[in-house]
Amino acid sequence: MHSDIRVCSNWEHAHERPVYTLGDRCPKCDAPAENSAPPPFDPTDRYGEYRRRARPDGPD
């Protein structure tokens, strides 16, 4: 998945909260911006079954 919205790669150290942009660089600190979309779902995830069981709303 690819998103057009990008986030400052250095926001945890340079800003109080994430800085979002559509460009390749952060408008406030000029650091590179990275994709803000979460990683895609991986059906071959070896530990997915255990994580789903550990969730309070997971299957019994």
UniProtKB/TrEMBL annotation:
GO process annotations (BP): rRNA processing
Family indicated by similarity: Belongs to the NOP10 family.
Any single GO CC term annotated in Swiss-Prot or TrEMBL for this entry: ribonucleoprotein complex
Chain positions covered by the region annotation Disordered: 29-60
Record function comment: Involved in ribosome biogenesis; more specifically in 18S rRNA pseudouridylation and in cleavage of pre-rRNA.
Pfam family membership, one: Nop10p
Assigned keywords, A-Z: Ribonucleoprotein, Ribosome biogenesis, rRNA processing
Residue ranges with Basic and acidic residues bias: 43-60
Origin species: Halorubrum tibetense
Stated name of the protein: Ribosome biogenesis protein Nop10
